[in-house]
Amino acid sequence: MDEIQNLLTRGVEKIYPSRQELEKVLRSGKKLRLYQGFDPSMPSLHLGNFVGLMKLRQLQKLGHKVIFLVGDFTGMIGDPTDKLATRKMLTREETLKNSQTWKDQASRVLNFEGDNPVKMLFNSEWLDKVNFKDLIGYTSHFTFQQLIERDMFQKRLKEDKPIYLHEFLYPVAQAIDCIVMDVDLEIGGNDQTFNMLAGRTLMKGIKNKEKFVLSTKLLVDKDGDKVGKTTGNALFLDSTPENFYGGIMSFPDEVIALAFELLTEVDLEGLEAKIKQDPMGEKKRLAFEIVKLLWSEEDTQKAQDIFEKTFQKKESPNLEVKVIKNAKLEDALVELNLAASKNEAKRLIQQGGVDVEEEKVVDSNFKLPENKEMIIKVGKTKFVKIKKCI
């Protein structure tokens, strides 16, 4: 399989208008201008974003012009995709604060320097300037029927739940991004297909130009649930190598092959047979490959050693002590990046997913003792040694 075939098939769910048409353009030698948008609703990039970064990495290596777009304007609206209730609107300050370390995180996978650097843009640069007249012009290319057909809106209608007007404008705003940046291709998870196709509609309507859409597969289990978002297993790129390695080791065996496809550059030939013969060995190889890509081989080896000692040999982990400011357990989990928000931290605690010094804590108001070293464990494989400062 050559590099273009690999690009068009590895981790790919669907290509619009077709794989054949995109392949024809790629083989012509044309260098595409492309992007993926990242929603700053959380202070760190996560496992789902990592899938997209790997596809952007492939395209950058082939010499195409990659844009890493921070949706600091659209993040204030809130993407309604898969949401059965209206998302809380964020402030500009929140979106900028959440994305302030993203370039450092993404630079582990993408190159922001050199001969063909990735460009990092913020869509508030142009969306802040859209006036009401412009907005009427943009929305004239969409029909109400086209926007209301989304599954989550239909379900809300049946359940008599509100759909707010600003939620209809999210895909329109994302489509405006495509017009302003004048891209040839947009990348995103297959749950973003509706939003990405809105950009095709607007590009054809305003510029009479083809915009390709490439949707990537999602890392989901046999029930269709996103891996990494189950109790205690959310994986963020500002985590530690030890917790990331442990989080991958908690993946169900059924997703090992898919994770290799989406999150590594490992040759996939013969992989299914290897997994069938030695699932634990292949899962450890998967964890090693992913963590090595995001950190260093030395950090990865250390993370693997800690995992083997702690979870396979049942020894106490030798961890660096982290000094924290928050005494309340749910706040401490957020501070330690063991939960994305206070709501998630509360849910993890109440569902029995958090241990303090090997004792399960189900009270989210639990106060950590001061000036004492202790180990907090979230889920089966995420742990950190902390000391509450006085």
Please characterize this protein's 3D structure.
It is a single chain. The chain is of the alpha/beta class. It has 3 domains: 3-216, 3-Layer(aba) Sandwich (Rossmann fold), CATH 3.40.50; 220-316, Orthogonal Bundle (Tyrosyl-Transfer RNA Synthetase); 319-390, Roll (Structural Genomics Hypothetical 15.5 Kd Protein In mrcA-pckA Intergenic Region, Chain A). 45% of the residues lie in helices and 14% in strands. The protein has helices at 3-9, 19-27, 47-61, 74-77, 92-98, 102-106, 124-127, 132-139, 144-148, 151-158, 165-181, 193-207, 241-249, 256-263, 271-277, 279-294, 297-312, 329-335, 342-350, and strands at residues 12-16, 33-38, 65-70, 119-122, 185-189, 212-216, 321-324, 354-356, 359-360, 373-378, 382-388. Strands 1-6-5-2-3-4 form a 6-stranded mixed β-sheet, with helices on both faces. A 5-stranded mixed β-sheet has the order 7-11-10-8-9. Helix 11 (165-181) packs across helix 12 (193-207). The termini are far apart. 35% of the residues are buried. The mean pLDDT is 90. This is Tyrosine--tRNA ligase. It comes from Candidatus Shapirobacteria bacterium CG03_land_8_20_14_0_80_40_19. Keywords: Aminoacyl-tRNA synthetase, ATP-binding, Ligase, Nucleotide-binding, Protein biosynthesis, RNA-binding.
Topology diagram in text:
Elements: H1 3-9, E1 12-16, H2 19-27, E2 33-38, H3 47-61, E3 65-70, H4 74-77, H5 92-98, H6 102-106, E4 119-122, H7 124-127, H8 132-139, H9 144-148, H10 151-158, H11 165-181, E5 185-189, H12 193-207, E6 212-216, H13 241-249, H14 256-263, H15 271-277, H16 279-294, H17 297-312, E7 321-324, H18 329-335, H19 342-350, E8 354-356, E9 359-360, E10 373-378, E11 382-388
Parallel strand pairs: 2-3, 2-5, 3-4, 5-6, 7-11
Antiparallel strand pairs: 1-6, 8-9, 8-10, 10-11
